Amino acid sequence: MKESVYTIKDNGVALVTLNRPEVYNAVNEEMLTLLCRQLSDLSFDKGVRVVVITGEGKVFCSGGDLRSIHDFPKGAAQGVYELATLFHQVVEEIRRMKKPVVAAINGVACAGGIETIVCCDINIAVETATFSDAHSRYGFMPGLGGGLGLARAVGPFKAKEMLFTADFFTARDMADAGLVNHVVPDDQLVTFVDELVNKLAERSPLSLARMKQLINDGLDVPWDVAVRYEMLSLEAQTHSEDFYEGIKAFNEMRSPQFKGK
Q: How many other β-carbons are positioned within 10 Å of the β-carbon of residue 50?
């Protein structure tokens, strides 16, 4: 039986697959620890030129596993913050990696799934993929740089619409907004991504690494400053009544009743 994250290497390309389809590839502490370790190993693997991240089944990633947060022994607030800290390490591994990271978006991407995508370098989505920030639906907010990263990717007005409404958007919507590079038929995702990454694997690793760093470092506010702000905001949010109401409503399978405090 494969682990919750598994990596297959072939001809200079590493395919990293999120493998918890039974919970829509929601991430928990174990999964994030494993993912961070595998990405770190790939970062130093000289035989790997390009990394691809995808999901098992029909979902790319639905974000944090709220059930694991609800059962956290130290309480939900501490659970969210510790999970976010691990997730932050994952997205920083993606951003710091001196290799192209391609998201092969095979289906639904929510919350932390989108926060992962905004840190990748090239995003390819199937036509049936849907995207929702989803945080506000349960009294959460981004905490990994995803809010500001989304604003940088699609512009502040589209980002606010996505963050505020938690609505679902199509792959075409996201391509038009600038978050997705290409939209392909579902049965052509593997072929399209293979052609792309094989091309990238032929390019100069040094020039790609330097171009990636140049773009990432040159966008507006330094990323670390932006993420520190989001992490502080997330920590404050976990002490709100709305946060606990969202957790409770999710586990009771009902719509939350937020009071704005």
A: 27
3-class secondary-structure state, position 153:
helix
CA distances from 48 to 11, 51, 156, 188, 201 (A): 8, 7, 35, 24, 8
- Could you tell me how far CA 31 lies from the centroid of its own chain? 13
What integer pLDDT is reported at residue 75 of this predicted model? 66
Closest CA to 119 of 150, 155, 83: 150
Domains and CATH numbers, the chain: 5-186 (3.90.226.10)
Give 143's pLDDT tier (boundaries 50, 70, 90).
confident
φ/ψ of residue 222, rounded to 5: -55, 140
Could you give the angle at the alpha carbon of 40 between the alpha carbons of 36 and 43, nearest 5°? 140
How many residues are listed for the chain in this entry? 261
Backbone angles phi, psi at 256, to 5 degrees: -70, 150
Distance CA 145, CA 232 (A): 11
Average pLDDT value for residue range 18-41: 95
100's tokens: 């192209």
Q: How many CA atoms lie within 13 A of 31 on its CB side?
A: 24
Lookup: tokens for 220: 């507006």
Please say whether the beta carbons of 134 and 166 come within 8 A. Answer: yes
